[in-house]
């Protein structure tokens, strides 16, 4: 009797185990086609570039006054007097973003390291319309400017903002053209864009140049400023 009872228990446990395994297989199967479908999804990643050229409208200028003398106080006083006239003149002109960029005073020595005097140099930076830059520079030179350390040409803020939008559009179009070229060769069909990432939008620092010595009758001709954008596009095919 005891052996028969144990045999019946064993058969019951075996049937229960088989039934549980069958339930496990059935419960897992509905999710498997979805996983397989995800594994079959194909996505092409393409990086597009866009560049827009904008006409420059302003000149960014950095200039200053440099004086040598025997006495530090005398040098600094003379620089301050000249620079005060220059700043007053700029405030009467359509100058924007007027900023002091440097104040320097240091000694200079002879061959035997004897003190010969002092050098003072103060510089300012500002922005002017290109059409008025030459005349303003000539006037400032007459008032004592003897250092023009940098000239660069930039577009207006509004033009730069529009340029960034156009550069992004050009970058997306470039990415789409690249994707179409690749998929067409492979005889594949693009279906939809599943992702897009803006990698960069920038207006590189404008080209600048320096004039070793300030001179009168200075002709100024503006150039162009570039705006660049880069995007990554993910296309399902």
Helices and strands in order:
Layout: H1 2-28, H2 32-40, E1 43-55, E2 58-69, H3 72-91, E3 96-109, E4 115-129, H4 130-142, E5 147-154, H5 157-185, E6 192-202, E7 208-211, E8 224-236
Antiparallel strand pairs: 1-8, 2-4, 2-5, 3-4, 5-7, 6-8
GO biological process, one term: DNA damage response
InterPro entries: 26kDa_periplasmic_antigen, SIMPL/DUF541
Protein name: DUF541 domain-containing protein
Q: Name the CATH architecture of the largest domain.
A: 2-Layer Sandwich
**Terminal CA distance:** 69 Å
Q: What spatial form do the alpha-carbon principal axes imply?
A: elongated
User: What count of domains describes the coordinates?
Assistant: 3
Order of helices and strands: HHEEHEEHEHEEE
Uncertain ranges: 1-8, 13-38, 212-216
CATH topology term of the largest domain: Alpha-Beta Plaits
Class by helix and strand content? alpha+beta
Number of strands: 8
Structure report:
It comes from Gloeomargarita lithophora Alchichica-D10. The chain has 237 residues and is an alpha+beta fold. The protein has three domains: 39 residues; 75 residues, 2-Layer Sandwich (Translation Initiation Factor IF3), CATH 3.30.110; 97 residues, Alpha-Beta Plaits, CATH 3.30.70.2970. The protein contains five helices and eight strands. It has a five-stranded antiparallel beta sheet. Strands 1-8-6 form a three-stranded antiparallel beta sheet.
């Amino acid at each position: 009797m005891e052996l028969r009872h144990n045999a019946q228990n064993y058969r019951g446990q075996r049937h229960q185990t088989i039934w549980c395994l069958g339930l496990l297989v059935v419960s897992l199967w509905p999710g498997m086609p979805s996983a397989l479908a995800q594994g079959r999804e194909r996505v092409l990643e393409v990086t597009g570039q866009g560049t827009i050229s904008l006409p420059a409208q302003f000149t960014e200028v950095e200039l200053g006054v440099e004086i040598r003398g025997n006495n530090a106080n005398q040098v600094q006083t003379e620089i301050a007097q000249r620079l005060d006239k220059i700043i007053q003149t700029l405030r009467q002109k359509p100058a924007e973003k007027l900023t002091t960029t440097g104040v320097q005073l240091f000694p200079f020595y002879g061959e035997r390291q004897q003190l010969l005097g002092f050098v003072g140099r103060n510089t300012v930076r500002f922005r002017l319309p290109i059409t008025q830059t030459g005349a303003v520079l000539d006037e400032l030179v007459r008032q004592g400017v003897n250092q023009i350390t940098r000239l660069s040409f930039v577009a207006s803020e509004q033009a730069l903002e529009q340029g960034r939008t156009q550069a992004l559009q050009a970058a997306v179009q470039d990415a789409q053209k690249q994707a179409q070229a690749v998929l067409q060769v492979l005889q594949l069909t693009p279906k939809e864009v599943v992702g897009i990432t803006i990698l960069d939008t920038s207006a590189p620092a404008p080209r600048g140049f320096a004039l070793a010595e300030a001179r009168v009758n200075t002709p100024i001709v503006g150039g162009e400023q570039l705006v660049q954008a880069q995007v990554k596009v993910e296309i399902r095919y």
